[in-house]
Design a protein that fits this description.
Blueprint: H1 2-27, H2 39-52, H3 54-58, H4 62-77, H5 80-87, H6 97-123, H7 132-151, H8 163-181, H9 187-196, H10 221-229, H11 235-239, H12 241-244, H13 251-265, H14 286-290, H15 297-310, H16 316-328, E1 356-360, H17 364-368, H18 370-385, E2 390-391, H19 401-405, H20 409-425, E3 428-433, H21 436-443, E4 454-456, H22 457-466, E5 476-479, H23 493-502, E6 505-506, H24 536-545, E7 550-553, H25 556-569, E8 574-577, H26 578-585
Parallel strand pairs: 1-2, 1-3, 3-4, 5-6, 5-7, 7-8
Helix pairs in contact: 1-8, 1-10, 2-9, 4-6, 6-7, 7-8, 9-10, 10-13, 18-26, 22-23, 23-26, 24-25
Length: 590
Protein backbone atom coordinates (compact mmCIF):
# COMPACT_ATOMS: atom_id res chain seq x y z
CA UNK A 1 0.00 0.00 0.00
CA UNK A 2 2.88 2.37 0.81
CA UNK A 3 4.35 1.84 -2.66
CA UNK A 4 1.03 2.65 -4.36
CA UNK A 5 0.68 5.87 -2.35
CA UNK A 6 4.24 6.97 -3.13
CA UNK A 7 3.78 6.10 -6.80
CA UNK A 8 0.53 8.07 -6.91
CA UNK A 9 2.23 11.09 -5.32
CA UNK A 10 5.12 10.92 -7.79
CA UNK A 11 2.78 10.59 -10.77
CA UNK A 12 0.72 13.53 -9.46
CA UNK A 13 3.81 15.75 -9.43
CA UNK A 14 4.71 14.66 -12.96
CA UNK A 15 1.19 15.19 -14.29
CA UNK A 16 1.01 18.63 -12.68
CA UNK A 17 4.24 19.62 -14.40
CA UNK A 18 2.99 18.30 -17.73
CA UNK A 19 -0.30 20.14 -17.26
CA UNK A 20 1.61 23.35 -16.52
CA UNK A 21 3.62 22.89 -19.74
CA UNK A 22 0.38 22.20 -21.64
CA UNK A 23 -1.22 25.40 -20.30
CA UNK A 24 1.86 27.40 -21.29
CA UNK A 25 1.77 26.02 -24.83
CA UNK A 26 -1.99 26.63 -25.11
CA UNK A 27 -1.34 30.28 -24.27
CA UNK A 28 0.77 30.55 -27.41
CA UNK A 29 -0.23 31.00 -31.03
CA UNK A 30 -1.03 28.16 -33.37
CA UNK A 31 -2.65 24.76 -33.13
CA UNK A 32 -0.89 21.52 -32.20
CA UNK A 33 -2.10 20.17 -35.52
CA UNK A 34 0.17 22.73 -37.24
CA UNK A 35 3.02 20.29 -36.70
CA UNK A 36 1.19 17.03 -37.33
CA UNK A 37 0.86 17.24 -41.11
CA UNK A 38 2.35 14.20 -42.83
CA UNK A 39 2.01 12.28 -39.56
CA UNK A 40 3.15 8.83 -40.83
CA UNK A 41 6.44 10.30 -42.02
CA UNK A 42 6.84 12.26 -38.79
CA UNK A 43 6.33 9.10 -36.73
CA UNK A 44 8.87 7.20 -38.83
CA UNK A 45 11.41 10.01 -38.43
CA UNK A 46 10.59 10.16 -34.70
CA UNK A 47 11.56 6.51 -34.18
CA UNK A 48 14.56 6.51 -36.51
CA UNK A 49 16.19 9.64 -35.10
CA UNK A 50 15.46 8.82 -31.45
CA UNK A 51 16.42 5.15 -31.50
CA UNK A 52 19.55 5.63 -33.59
CA UNK A 53 20.59 8.74 -31.61
CA UNK A 54 21.80 10.05 -34.95
CA UNK A 55 22.96 13.50 -33.86
CA UNK A 56 24.67 12.29 -30.70
CA UNK A 57 26.62 9.65 -32.61
CA UNK A 58 27.53 12.16 -35.33
CA UNK A 59 28.90 14.58 -32.73
CA UNK A 60 30.90 11.82 -31.02
CA UNK A 61 28.71 11.76 -27.89
CA UNK A 62 28.44 7.97 -27.83
CA UNK A 63 28.29 8.08 -24.02
CA UNK A 64 24.94 9.88 -24.22
CA UNK A 65 23.61 7.21 -26.57
CA UNK A 66 24.67 4.54 -24.06
CA UNK A 67 22.68 6.32 -21.35
CA UNK A 68 19.64 6.79 -23.61
CA UNK A 69 19.51 3.18 -24.83
CA UNK A 70 19.91 1.93 -21.27
CA UNK A 71 17.17 4.31 -20.14
CA UNK A 72 14.75 2.77 -22.67
CA UNK A 73 15.54 -0.81 -21.53
CA UNK A 74 15.20 0.12 -17.86
CA UNK A 75 11.96 1.94 -18.57
CA UNK A 76 10.55 -1.25 -20.10
CA UNK A 77 11.77 -3.37 -17.20
CA UNK A 78 10.11 -1.13 -14.61
CA UNK A 79 6.67 -1.81 -16.03
CA UNK A 80 6.48 -4.89 -13.82
CA UNK A 81 6.96 -3.23 -10.43
CA UNK A 82 3.63 -1.38 -10.26
CA UNK A 83 1.84 -4.29 -11.95
CA UNK A 84 3.22 -6.85 -9.50
CA UNK A 85 2.72 -4.82 -6.33
CA UNK A 86 -0.70 -3.46 -7.26
CA UNK A 87 -2.30 -6.36 -9.14
CA UNK A 88 -0.14 -9.39 -8.46
CA UNK A 89 0.48 -9.68 -12.19
CA UNK A 90 3.69 -9.35 -14.16
CA UNK A 91 4.85 -9.70 -17.75
CA UNK A 92 6.76 -12.97 -17.59
CA UNK A 93 9.42 -12.22 -20.18
CA UNK A 94 10.54 -9.19 -18.15
CA UNK A 95 11.30 -11.47 -15.18
CA UNK A 96 13.41 -14.00 -17.06
CA UNK A 97 17.19 -14.24 -16.48
CA UNK A 98 17.65 -13.57 -20.20
CA UNK A 99 15.94 -10.18 -20.08
CA UNK A 100 17.70 -9.36 -16.79
CA UNK A 101 20.99 -10.09 -18.55
CA UNK A 102 20.10 -7.73 -21.42
CA UNK A 103 19.11 -5.07 -18.89
CA UNK A 104 22.33 -5.50 -16.93
CA UNK A 105 24.46 -5.31 -20.04
CA UNK A 106 22.74 -2.06 -20.96
CA UNK A 107 23.20 -1.03 -17.33
CA UNK A 108 26.95 -1.44 -17.73
CA UNK A 109 26.77 0.69 -20.87
CA UNK A 110 24.90 3.33 -18.84
CA UNK A 111 27.59 3.28 -16.15
CA UNK A 112 30.28 3.72 -18.80
CA UNK A 113 28.33 6.63 -20.26
CA UNK A 114 27.83 8.21 -16.83
CA UNK A 115 31.54 7.79 -16.02
CA UNK A 116 32.43 9.68 -19.21
CA UNK A 117 29.86 12.35 -18.34
CA UNK A 118 31.39 12.73 -14.87
CA UNK A 119 34.86 13.00 -16.40
CA UNK A 120 33.72 15.69 -18.86
CA UNK A 121 32.30 17.78 -16.05
CA UNK A 122 35.36 17.36 -13.85
CA UNK A 123 37.72 18.11 -16.72
CA UNK A 124 35.60 20.93 -18.15
CA UNK A 125 34.27 21.13 -21.71
CA UNK A 126 33.80 24.34 -23.68
CA UNK A 127 30.32 25.81 -23.16
CA UNK A 128 29.23 22.87 -20.93
CA UNK A 129 27.68 24.33 -17.80
CA UNK A 130 28.45 22.53 -14.54
CA UNK A 131 25.02 22.81 -12.94
CA UNK A 132 23.80 21.20 -9.72
CA UNK A 133 20.97 19.64 -11.73
CA UNK A 134 23.47 17.74 -13.86
CA UNK A 135 25.44 16.39 -10.90
CA UNK A 136 22.29 15.25 -9.09
CA UNK A 137 21.02 13.52 -12.22
CA UNK A 138 24.29 11.65 -12.82
CA UNK A 139 24.42 10.52 -9.18
CA UNK A 140 20.78 9.35 -9.32
CA UNK A 141 21.34 7.40 -12.56
CA UNK A 142 24.45 5.73 -11.12
CA UNK A 143 22.66 4.80 -7.89
CA UNK A 144 19.59 3.38 -9.64
CA UNK A 145 21.63 1.25 -12.05
CA UNK A 146 24.06 -0.03 -9.40
CA UNK A 147 21.18 -1.06 -7.10
CA UNK A 148 19.43 -2.71 -10.04
CA UNK A 149 22.50 -4.82 -10.88
CA UNK A 150 22.92 -5.75 -7.21
CA UNK A 151 19.37 -7.15 -7.14
CA UNK A 152 19.48 -8.66 -10.64
CA UNK A 153 18.95 -12.39 -11.17
CA UNK A 154 20.97 -12.48 -14.36
CA UNK A 155 24.27 -14.42 -14.72
CA UNK A 156 26.20 -11.18 -14.11
CA UNK A 157 23.85 -9.85 -11.41
CA UNK A 158 24.55 -10.12 -7.66
CA UNK A 159 21.09 -11.62 -6.85
CA UNK A 160 20.82 -9.64 -3.60
CA UNK A 161 17.31 -10.44 -2.30
CA UNK A 162 17.04 -7.64 0.23
CA UNK A 163 13.91 -5.60 1.02
CA UNK A 164 15.98 -2.58 2.14
CA UNK A 165 17.75 -2.52 -1.24
CA UNK A 166 14.41 -2.79 -3.05
CA UNK A 167 13.01 0.19 -1.11
CA UNK A 168 16.18 2.22 -1.61
CA UNK A 169 16.01 1.51 -5.33
CA UNK A 170 12.29 2.32 -5.48
CA UNK A 171 12.58 5.60 -3.56
CA UNK A 172 15.48 6.76 -5.73
CA UNK A 173 13.54 5.84 -8.84
CA UNK A 174 10.41 7.73 -7.75
CA UNK A 175 12.46 10.78 -6.75
CA UNK A 176 14.31 10.68 -10.07
CA UNK A 177 11.00 10.47 -11.96
CA UNK A 178 9.80 13.70 -10.32
CA UNK A 179 13.16 15.48 -10.32
CA UNK A 180 13.56 15.08 -14.07
CA UNK A 181 10.43 17.13 -14.78
CA UNK A 182 11.42 19.96 -12.43
CA UNK A 183 15.00 20.33 -13.64
CA UNK A 184 16.83 20.99 -16.90
CA UNK A 185 16.45 17.29 -17.57
CA UNK A 186 12.80 17.69 -18.49
CA UNK A 187 14.26 17.37 -21.99
CA UNK A 188 14.30 13.59 -21.40
CA UNK A 189 10.55 13.68 -22.03
CA UNK A 190 10.25 16.65 -24.38
CA UNK A 191 13.30 16.25 -26.67
CA UNK A 192 12.07 13.05 -28.33
CA UNK A 193 8.75 14.79 -29.04
CA UNK A 194 10.67 17.73 -30.49
CA UNK A 195 11.75 15.42 -33.33
CA UNK A 196 8.09 14.65 -34.04
CA UNK A 197 7.26 18.37 -34.29
CA UNK A 198 10.27 19.44 -36.37
CA UNK A 199 10.04 20.90 -39.89
CA UNK A 200 12.96 19.46 -41.84
CA UNK A 201 12.51 21.55 -45.00
CA UNK A 202 13.63 24.75 -43.19
CA UNK A 203 11.09 26.87 -45.10
CA UNK A 204 9.28 29.72 -43.35
CA UNK A 205 5.54 29.71 -43.87
CA UNK A 206 3.38 32.84 -43.97
CA UNK A 207 2.25 33.59 -40.42
CA UNK A 208 1.11 37.22 -40.37
CA UNK A 209 3.35 38.20 -37.45
CA UNK A 210 4.76 41.32 -39.08
CA UNK A 211 5.76 42.93 -35.78
CA UNK A 212 7.31 39.80 -34.33
CA UNK A 213 6.98 38.36 -30.84
CA UNK A 214 8.15 39.20 -27.34
CA UNK A 215 5.29 38.09 -25.04
CA UNK A 216 4.40 34.46 -24.48
CA UNK A 217 1.07 34.69 -26.31
CA UNK A 218 2.81 36.17 -29.37
CA UNK A 219 5.06 33.16 -29.96
CA UNK A 220 3.99 30.00 -31.75
CA UNK A 221 3.74 27.04 -29.38
CA UNK A 222 6.54 25.21 -31.22
CA UNK A 223 8.89 28.12 -30.57
CA UNK A 224 8.20 27.89 -26.83
CA UNK A 225 8.40 24.08 -26.94
CA UNK A 226 12.11 24.55 -27.70
CA UNK A 227 12.59 25.74 -24.12
CA UNK A 228 11.20 22.46 -22.74
CA UNK A 229 13.24 20.23 -25.04
CA UNK A 230 16.55 22.10 -24.63
CA UNK A 231 19.18 19.99 -22.83
CA UNK A 232 21.44 22.97 -22.06
CA UNK A 233 24.28 20.95 -23.60
CA UNK A 234 25.96 23.93 -25.27
CA UNK A 235 26.42 22.30 -28.69
CA UNK A 236 24.69 25.25 -30.36
CA UNK A 237 27.08 27.70 -28.69
CA UNK A 238 30.09 25.62 -29.74
CA UNK A 239 29.24 25.98 -33.44
CA UNK A 240 27.86 29.54 -33.44
CA UNK A 241 30.02 31.72 -35.76
CA UNK A 242 28.87 34.92 -34.03
CA UNK A 243 29.80 33.69 -30.56
CA UNK A 244 33.12 32.41 -31.90
CA UNK A 245 34.02 35.85 -33.22
CA UNK A 246 33.41 37.97 -30.14
CA UNK A 247 29.65 38.47 -30.05
CA UNK A 248 27.67 37.98 -26.85
CA UNK A 249 24.98 36.20 -28.85
CA UNK A 250 24.31 32.73 -27.44
CA UNK A 251 21.75 30.44 -29.11
CA UNK A 252 21.54 28.45 -25.88
CA UNK A 253 20.85 31.56 -23.80
CA UNK A 254 18.01 32.53 -26.14
CA UNK A 255 16.27 29.19 -25.74
CA UNK A 256 17.28 27.78 -22.36
CA UNK A 257 17.53 31.00 -20.38
CA UNK A 258 15.35 33.61 -22.07
CA UNK A 259 12.58 31.46 -23.57
CA UNK A 260 12.33 29.16 -20.54
CA UNK A 261 12.20 32.17 -18.21
CA UNK A 262 9.46 33.67 -20.37
CA UNK A 263 7.50 30.40 -20.23
CA UNK A 264 7.60 29.95 -16.45
CA UNK A 265 8.06 33.52 -15.17
CA UNK A 266 6.11 35.43 -17.86
CA UNK A 267 6.87 39.07 -18.73
CA UNK A 268 8.63 39.80 -22.03
CA UNK A 269 11.48 37.85 -23.54
CA UNK A 270 13.67 40.96 -23.67
CA UNK A 271 13.48 41.08 -19.87
CA UNK A 272 15.93 38.18 -20.09
CA UNK A 273 17.80 39.04 -23.30
CA UNK A 274 19.76 41.96 -24.78
CA UNK A 275 18.10 43.19 -27.97
CA UNK A 276 21.30 44.30 -29.66
CA UNK A 277 22.91 40.84 -29.79
CA UNK A 278 20.08 39.52 -31.96
CA UNK A 279 21.56 41.39 -34.94
CA UNK A 280 24.78 39.38 -34.59
CA UNK A 281 23.11 36.16 -35.77
CA UNK A 282 23.88 35.07 -39.35
CA UNK A 283 20.88 32.70 -39.56
CA UNK A 284 23.35 30.08 -40.80
CA UNK A 285 21.39 27.21 -39.17
CA UNK A 286 24.51 25.70 -37.57
CA UNK A 287 22.86 25.70 -34.13
CA UNK A 288 19.70 24.01 -35.39
CA UNK A 289 21.69 21.48 -37.43
CA UNK A 290 23.78 20.32 -34.47
CA UNK A 291 21.03 20.43 -31.81
CA UNK A 292 20.35 16.89 -30.51
CA UNK A 293 16.90 18.05 -29.36
CA UNK A 294 16.00 19.29 -32.86
CA UNK A 295 15.25 22.80 -31.60
CA UNK A 296 14.53 25.51 -34.14
CA UNK A 297 16.56 28.49 -32.95
CA UNK A 298 16.26 30.36 -36.25
CA UNK A 299 12.48 30.76 -36.03
CA UNK A 300 12.72 32.44 -32.64
CA UNK A 301 15.51 34.76 -33.79
CA UNK A 302 13.50 35.88 -36.83
CA UNK A 303 10.53 36.70 -34.59
CA UNK A 304 12.80 38.68 -32.26
CA UNK A 305 14.23 40.60 -35.20
CA UNK A 306 10.75 41.48 -36.43
CA UNK A 307 9.94 42.89 -33.01
CA UNK A 308 13.18 44.86 -32.74
CA UNK A 309 12.81 46.17 -36.30
CA UNK A 310 9.26 47.36 -35.55
CA UNK A 311 10.76 49.45 -32.73
CA UNK A 312 13.28 51.05 -35.09
CA UNK A 313 16.32 49.36 -33.56
CA UNK A 314 18.35 48.34 -36.59
CA UNK A 315 21.93 48.37 -37.83
CA UNK A 316 22.71 51.27 -40.17
CA UNK A 317 23.92 49.02 -42.99
CA UNK A 318 20.84 46.80 -42.80
CA UNK A 319 18.56 49.84 -42.76
CA UNK A 320 20.23 51.19 -45.91
CA UNK A 321 19.75 47.85 -47.69
CA UNK A 322 16.06 47.74 -46.72
CA UNK A 323 15.51 51.25 -48.06
CA UNK A 324 17.26 50.35 -51.31
CA UNK A 325 15.22 47.20 -51.82
CA UNK A 326 12.00 49.04 -51.15
CA UNK A 327 12.93 51.89 -53.50
CA UNK A 328 14.96 50.20 -56.25
CA UNK A 329 14.21 46.48 -55.92
CA UNK A 330 17.86 45.70 -55.10
CA UNK A 331 20.09 46.06 -52.04
CA UNK A 332 22.70 48.12 -53.94
CA UNK A 333 20.41 51.06 -54.58
CA UNK A 334 21.15 50.88 -58.31
CA UNK A 335 18.60 51.62 -61.06
CA UNK A 336 16.65 48.54 -62.12
CA UNK A 337 17.42 49.27 -65.80
CA UNK A 338 21.08 48.47 -65.09
CA UNK A 339 20.34 45.06 -63.63
CA UNK A 340 21.45 43.19 -66.71
CA UNK A 341 23.93 45.73 -68.08
CA UNK A 342 26.61 43.02 -67.80
CA UNK A 343 24.69 40.84 -70.29
CA UNK A 344 23.74 43.41 -72.93
CA UNK A 345 26.32 42.24 -75.46
CA UNK A 346 25.60 38.55 -74.81
CA UNK A 347 22.24 38.50 -76.54
CA UNK A 348 20.07 37.07 -73.81
CA UNK A 349 16.55 35.74 -74.32
CA UNK A 350 13.81 37.86 -72.70
CA UNK A 351 11.33 35.41 -71.15
CA UNK A 352 8.62 38.07 -71.17
CA UNK A 353 8.54 37.63 -74.94
CA UNK A 354 10.18 34.31 -75.79
CA UNK A 355 9.81 30.91 -74.14
CA UNK A 356 12.79 29.28 -72.41
CA UNK A 357 12.93 25.99 -70.56
CA UNK A 358 14.78 27.71 -67.70
CA UNK A 359 14.47 31.19 -66.29
CA UNK A 360 17.81 32.19 -64.79
CA UNK A 361 16.97 34.22 -61.67
CA UNK A 362 20.31 35.91 -61.23
CA UNK A 363 20.06 37.82 -57.93
CA UNK A 364 21.38 41.19 -56.71
CA UNK A 365 25.04 40.37 -56.11
CA UNK A 366 25.43 38.49 -59.36
CA UNK A 367 23.94 41.48 -61.21
CA UNK A 368 25.42 44.51 -59.47
CA UNK A 369 28.68 43.57 -57.74
CA UNK A 370 31.60 44.21 -60.16
CA UNK A 371 33.49 41.02 -59.30
CA UNK A 372 30.40 38.84 -59.53
CA UNK A 373 29.29 40.45 -62.81
CA UNK A 374 32.39 38.91 -64.35
CA UNK A 375 31.39 35.49 -62.98
CA UNK A 376 27.81 36.00 -64.20
CA UNK A 377 29.12 36.57 -67.72
CA UNK A 378 31.09 33.34 -67.46
CA UNK A 379 28.02 31.49 -66.20
CA UNK A 380 26.03 32.81 -69.16
CA UNK A 381 28.65 31.53 -71.60
CA UNK A 382 28.92 28.18 -69.81
CA UNK A 383 25.15 27.68 -69.98
CA UNK A 384 25.24 28.50 -73.68
CA UNK A 385 28.15 26.16 -74.33
CA UNK A 386 26.32 23.32 -72.58
CA UNK A 387 23.19 23.91 -74.65
CA UNK A 388 20.99 25.02 -71.78
CA UNK A 389 17.81 26.70 -72.98
CA UNK A 390 17.51 29.70 -70.64
CA UNK A 391 16.44 33.31 -70.53
CA UNK A 392 16.45 36.32 -68.21
CA UNK A 393 13.62 38.35 -66.71
CA UNK A 394 14.28 42.12 -67.07
CA UNK A 395 11.65 42.72 -64.34
CA UNK A 396 13.71 40.72 -61.85
CA UNK A 397 13.95 42.10 -58.29
CA UNK A 398 15.64 40.97 -55.09
CA UNK A 399 14.10 37.60 -54.23
CA UNK A 400 13.86 38.60 -50.55
CA UNK A 401 15.70 35.88 -48.66
CA UNK A 402 17.92 38.11 -46.50
CA UNK A 403 15.17 40.71 -46.38
CA UNK A 404 13.03 38.14 -44.61
CA UNK A 405 15.84 36.95 -42.35
CA UNK A 406 16.46 40.43 -40.96
CA UNK A 407 12.82 40.56 -39.91
CA UNK A 408 11.20 42.76 -42.58
CA UNK A 409 8.30 40.38 -43.20
CA UNK A 410 5.94 43.01 -44.60
CA UNK A 411 8.37 44.18 -47.26
CA UNK A 412 9.25 40.56 -48.08
CA UNK A 413 5.61 39.76 -48.66
CA UNK A 414 5.24 42.80 -50.93
CA UNK A 415 8.38 41.89 -52.91
CA UNK A 416 7.31 38.23 -53.16
CA UNK A 417 3.87 39.19 -54.52
CA UNK A 418 5.41 41.50 -57.13
CA UNK A 419 7.93 38.84 -58.16
CA UNK A 420 5.23 36.20 -58.43
CA UNK A 421 3.19 38.43 -60.73
CA UNK A 422 6.24 39.01 -62.93
CA UNK A 423 7.08 35.32 -62.98
CA UNK A 424 3.53 34.31 -63.87
CA UNK A 425 3.67 36.55 -66.94
CA UNK A 426 6.99 35.08 -68.08
CA UNK A 427 7.33 32.10 -70.43
CA UNK A 428 9.34 29.28 -68.83
CA UNK A 429 9.00 25.89 -67.15
CA UNK A 430 11.67 25.92 -64.43
CA UNK A 431 13.89 28.37 -62.57
CA UNK A 432 17.66 28.06 -62.27
CA UNK A 433 19.81 30.31 -60.08
CA UNK A 434 23.48 30.73 -59.24
CA UNK A 435 22.61 32.23 -55.83
CA UNK A 436 21.67 29.86 -52.95
CA UNK A 437 19.95 32.72 -51.08
CA UNK A 438 17.71 33.34 -54.09
CA UNK A 439 17.21 29.58 -54.46
CA UNK A 440 15.83 29.33 -50.94
CA UNK A 441 13.66 32.44 -51.14
CA UNK A 442 11.97 31.31 -54.35
CA UNK A 443 11.11 27.98 -52.73
CA UNK A 444 9.29 29.88 -49.98
CA UNK A 445 7.02 31.58 -52.52
CA UNK A 446 4.77 28.55 -52.31
CA UNK A 447 3.36 30.06 -49.10
CA UNK A 448 2.47 33.23 -50.98
CA UNK A 449 0.35 31.84 -53.76
CA UNK A 450 2.63 30.13 -56.27
CA UNK A 451 5.05 27.21 -56.18
CA UNK A 452 7.86 27.14 -58.71
CA UNK A 453 10.25 24.37 -59.70
CA UNK A 454 13.58 25.85 -58.60
CA UNK A 455 17.14 24.51 -59.02
CA UNK A 456 20.62 25.61 -58.08
CA UNK A 457 22.66 25.54 -61.28
CA UNK A 458 24.88 22.69 -60.03
CA UNK A 459 21.78 20.46 -59.93
CA UNK A 460 21.10 21.13 -63.60
CA UNK A 461 24.43 21.26 -65.39
CA UNK A 462 26.06 18.16 -63.89
CA UNK A 463 24.37 15.85 -66.41
CA UNK A 464 25.18 18.27 -69.22
CA UNK A 465 28.83 18.33 -68.18
CA UNK A 466 29.04 14.53 -68.20
CA UNK A 467 28.27 14.56 -71.90
CA UNK A 468 30.46 17.56 -72.74
CA UNK A 469 34.03 17.64 -73.93
CA UNK A 470 35.99 18.91 -70.96
CA UNK A 471 39.64 19.48 -70.16
CA UNK A 472 40.82 17.93 -66.89
CA UNK A 473 42.20 20.44 -64.39
CA UNK A 474 45.23 19.77 -62.24
CA UNK A 475 44.44 21.77 -59.10
CA UNK A 476 44.35 21.04 -55.39
CA UNK A 477 41.18 22.70 -54.08
CA UNK A 478 38.89 22.79 -51.09
CA UNK A 479 35.17 23.52 -51.27
CA UNK A 480 33.02 25.66 -48.98
CA UNK A 481 29.39 24.59 -48.51
CA UNK A 482 27.06 27.63 -48.67
CA UNK A 483 24.57 27.67 -45.78
CA UNK A 484 21.53 28.10 -48.03
CA UNK A 485 22.54 25.35 -50.41
CA UNK A 486 23.85 22.97 -47.75
CA UNK A 487 22.23 23.17 -44.32
CA UNK A 488 19.00 24.75 -45.53
CA UNK A 489 18.47 22.62 -48.64
CA UNK A 490 20.70 19.58 -48.08
CA UNK A 491 22.58 19.85 -51.37
CA UNK A 492 26.13 18.78 -50.63
CA UNK A 493 26.94 16.35 -53.41
CA UNK A 494 26.36 18.08 -56.76
CA UNK A 495 29.16 20.67 -56.41
CA UNK A 496 31.51 17.89 -55.32
CA UNK A 497 30.46 15.65 -58.21
CA UNK A 498 31.21 18.49 -60.62
CA UNK A 499 34.64 19.07 -59.06
CA UNK A 500 35.39 15.36 -59.39
CA UNK A 501 34.26 15.47 -63.01
CA UNK A 502 36.65 18.37 -63.67
CA UNK A 503 39.55 16.27 -62.41
CA UNK A 504 40.68 18.47 -59.52
CA UNK A 505 41.95 17.07 -56.24
CA UNK A 506 39.34 17.93 -53.62
CA UNK A 507 40.62 18.18 -50.04
CA UNK A 508 37.96 18.74 -47.41
CA UNK A 509 38.32 21.23 -44.62
CA UNK A 510 37.70 19.87 -41.13
CA UNK A 511 34.32 21.61 -41.10
CA UNK A 512 32.44 20.59 -44.21
CA UNK A 513 28.95 19.70 -45.43
CA UNK A 514 26.43 20.21 -42.58
CA UNK A 515 29.27 21.30 -40.28
CA UNK A 516 30.51 24.00 -42.66
CA UNK A 517 31.41 27.33 -41.05
CA UNK A 518 29.23 30.22 -42.21
CA UNK A 519 30.96 32.95 -44.24
CA UNK A 520 29.11 35.64 -42.27
CA UNK A 521 26.98 36.99 -45.13
CA UNK A 522 23.64 35.44 -44.20
CA UNK A 523 20.87 36.94 -42.11
CA UNK A 524 21.82 40.41 -43.33
CA UNK A 525 25.43 39.98 -42.23
CA UNK A 526 26.73 41.12 -45.60
CA UNK A 527 24.86 44.43 -45.18
CA UNK A 528 25.81 44.99 -41.55
CA UNK A 529 28.37 47.57 -40.42
CA UNK A 530 30.58 44.95 -38.78
CA UNK A 531 32.71 46.20 -35.88
CA UNK A 532 34.34 43.01 -34.56
CA UNK A 533 38.03 42.41 -35.33
CA UNK A 534 37.49 38.72 -35.98
CA UNK A 535 34.93 37.57 -38.55
CA UNK A 536 33.67 34.12 -39.59
CA UNK A 537 35.08 34.68 -43.07
CA UNK A 538 38.55 35.28 -41.61
CA UNK A 539 38.44 31.98 -39.73
CA UNK A 540 37.15 30.15 -42.78
CA UNK A 541 39.85 31.32 -45.21
CA UNK A 542 42.50 30.39 -42.65
CA UNK A 543 41.00 26.89 -42.49
CA UNK A 544 41.01 26.70 -46.29
CA UNK A 545 44.62 27.84 -46.60
CA UNK A 546 45.71 24.98 -44.34
CA UNK A 547 44.56 22.31 -46.79
CA UNK A 548 44.64 23.81 -50.31
CA UNK A 549 45.77 26.65 -52.55
CA UNK A 550 42.31 27.31 -53.99
CA UNK A 551 39.04 27.85 -52.16
CA UNK A 552 36.05 27.00 -54.37
CA UNK A 553 32.66 28.59 -53.69
CA UNK A 554 29.18 28.21 -55.22
CA UNK A 555 27.55 31.36 -53.88
CA UNK A 556 28.10 35.02 -54.91
CA UNK A 557 28.04 36.23 -51.32
CA UNK A 558 30.63 33.64 -50.30
CA UNK A 559 32.88 34.91 -53.06
CA UNK A 560 32.61 38.53 -51.88
CA UNK A 561 33.11 37.68 -48.20
CA UNK A 562 36.11 35.40 -48.78
CA UNK A 563 37.77 37.72 -51.29
CA UNK A 564 37.77 40.48 -48.66
CA UNK A 565 38.85 38.04 -45.94
CA UNK A 566 41.89 36.81 -47.90
CA UNK A 567 43.04 40.41 -48.39
CA UNK A 568 42.45 41.29 -44.73
CA UNK A 569 44.33 38.21 -43.51
CA UNK A 570 47.16 38.52 -46.04
CA UNK A 571 46.85 34.90 -47.15
CA UNK A 572 48.24 33.28 -50.27
CA UNK A 573 44.89 31.70 -51.12
CA UNK A 574 42.93 32.02 -54.35
CA UNK A 575 39.14 32.29 -54.10
CA UNK A 576 37.44 30.84 -57.17
CA UNK A 577 33.80 30.40 -58.05
CA UNK A 578 32.93 26.90 -59.23
CA UNK A 579 31.66 28.37 -62.49
CA UNK A 580 35.17 29.68 -63.20
CA UNK A 581 36.61 26.17 -63.02
CA UNK A 582 33.82 24.84 -65.22
CA UNK A 583 34.51 27.60 -67.75
CA UNK A 584 38.22 26.78 -67.79
CA UNK A 585 37.49 23.10 -68.26
CA UNK A 586 35.12 23.89 -71.16
CA UNK A 587 37.67 26.38 -72.51
CA UNK A 588 35.19 29.23 -72.26
CA UNK A 589 36.91 32.62 -72.17
CA UNK A 590 35.80 35.71 -70.30
Amino acid sequence: MIFQVLLAIAISFVLYRLYTAYKILRTCRGKFSDRLNGLPKRILVFFIHNITQKKHLKSGAVFHSFIFWGFIIYLISYINDPLLVSFGYSIEILETPGFHLIRDLFGIMVLIGVAIAFFRRIKGVEYLENTLDAWITLILITSVVVLSILMSKSPIGFKADNEALWWAHTMLLLFFMVFVFYSKHMHIFFAPLSVLFTEFDRLLEKDGRYEGSERLDEFHWREVFNAFSCANCGRCDRVCPALKTGSELSPRRIIFKAMRSLAFKKGKIFDYLDKKVIWDCYLCLACTEVCPSYNEHYRIIIQLRRKILSEGIVDEGIQRALININRYGNSFGRPSRLRFSWAKDLGFKDVRKDFAEYLWYVGDYACYHPEIQRISRLAFKVFKKLGLDFGLLPDERNAGNDLRRVGEEGLFELIAEKNIKSLEKAKFNKIITTDPHTYHALKEYRFFGREFEVYHYTQVIYDLLKNAKIKKLNYRVTYHDPCYLGRYNKEYEMPRKILKLLGVELVEMKRNRENSLCCGAGGGGIWKMEERKEKPSYIRVKEASEVADILVVACPKDYVMFLDAVKACGLDLKVVDLIELIAESLEVNE
